[in-house]
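Model it.
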Amino acid sequence: MVKNNGLMKKILVLHGPNLNLLGLREPSVYGRTSLAELNEQLKTHADASGFILTTQQSNSEGELINVIQQAMSDKVAYMIINPAGLTHTSIAMRDAILAVQIPFIEVHISNVHARESFRQHSYFSDIATGVISGLGTNGYLLALQAIIEKLK
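Modeled.
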């Protein structure tokens, strides 16, 4: 177990709008893995490495901001965030992340740089410790592995 002040270290995974449709929505772009399957893979990997991993998906910007703010009180050590469509619009979510000062890796399932021009700007990339884009749901697992190595 990896501990912080006697407690197991916590990792939070945030999934933004429409990611509840993983496995159903545009499988040629987003793959066939469901959100439940992805979350289970992440939790299993984190648990085997001695970390507590929680996940949250919301289609609501305000709800995601509340979860980010709560993460500070919950003593979350690191976050994986896929802001989805909010990547290109949410200054409020960016401000919440800056306020809580929890490091995070930004993940995108598709290669946002090979898509429409409006998807190529992120309000999060410059404040993230890393960005993974275009590797499907494996991007989340790679982000988790990087965080585990960093926190051990």
